[in-house]
Amino acid sequence: MKQFYNEKISELEIAIDEVEIETDCSLARLETVIHLVLKCLSELKEYVLKRGFKNTNEEIRFFKYQKPVIVAKLIYYNTIYKIETKKPYGTKPIRKYLNKELKKLKRFFDNNLDFYKYYRSNNSFLDDKYFLRGQLDIQLCVDTGHFQSDMTFSTSHDYKVAKIIANDLIQVYIEDQLYRNTEHEKLDKDLPRLNWTGSKASLIELIYALHYQRVFDNGNNDIREIARYFESAFGIDLGNFYQTYLELRNRKMNRTKFLDALREELLRKMDGQDEK
């Protein structure tokens, strides 16, 4: 088991490193990594069910130390994926949102304090209850989700170990994001406020053009999110921007009036600078 596990965890970490280097979009990268971890777990499960364990010590070691490391990666990347997809716009809303996520981690810690102490202290006197299959003891604070898990590949507490490992990583990630958000907020205060003084229709035309060009997060955004971002950044209320877009689309002539004007003015300025 040890050799097979070491080979699989090594393959997984190399594959994750390659994805980190090759994939630009953070959401696409997270999705790819999640699939890699699921594949690794599937192969590990197949091996365990086919081979079994030599003795109870090997089984305890697997469910206490080995499987949780891989499951923790799944929990971590899936949690980061959900955090990123639900993250609001604006420094203050982001800070509030991230602090709320930190409170979730604290709540899990508080609800599992006894097990935290047991695991962190490297105790082993309850390992035969926590990390052997078929040793369910409801008095040991078993999560309801365990009753719906695959009992052939899980014990009452191996998932909790994975949560502990993952939550440490998630906390580091969130605290780093909070630091970046604070630094960004400081930078925002130093920058002058820019207000949009063109027409709302022109800005909406620009927003839709950028959205259809997929320049924000490789197109993994809703048009409403982009519109809210521009409203916040430029201090403007776009109102029913979709209705305005429909009016632009239904124009008989010059449906991209603002974009055409941008292009013409930029080319005129470039030509004028070339002549100097």
Characterization of this structure:
With 276 residues, the protein is mostly helical. The chain folds into two domains: 2-190, no CATH class; 200-274, no CATH class. It has helices at 2-22, 26-51, 56-86, 91-111, 113-120, 127-130, 158-190, 200-212, 223-234, 241-249, 257-274. It is elongated, with a radius of gyration of 26 Å. It starts with a helix and ends with a helix. The mean pLDDT is 86.
Secondary structure blueprint with pairings:
Blueprint: H1 2-22, H2 26-51, H3 56-86, H4 91-111, H5 113-120, H6 127-130, H7 158-190, H8 200-212, H9 223-234, H10 241-249, H11 257-274
Helix pairs in contact: 1-2, 2-3, 3-7, 4-7, 8-9, 8-10
Q: Can you tag this structure with a few keywords?
A:
about 280 residues; mainly alpha; 11 helices; elongated
Counting copies of identical and different chains, the oligomeric state is single chain
Number of helices, counting only DSSP H or I runs of 4 residues or more = 11
Mean pLDDT: 86
Question: How far is the first residue's CA from the last residue's CA?
Answer: 74 Å
Number of structural domains: 2
Overall, the morphology is elongated
Binned, the helix content reads over 70%
Spans of at least 5 consecutive residues whose pLDDT stays below 50 are none
Q: Secondary-structure element sequence? A: HHHHHHHHHHH
Residue fraction in strands? under 5%
What is the structural class?
Answer: mainly alpha
Largest sheet: none
Organism: Flavobacterium agricola
Protein name: RteC domain-containing protein
InterPro entries: Tet_reg_excision_RteC
Pfam families: RteC (PF09357)
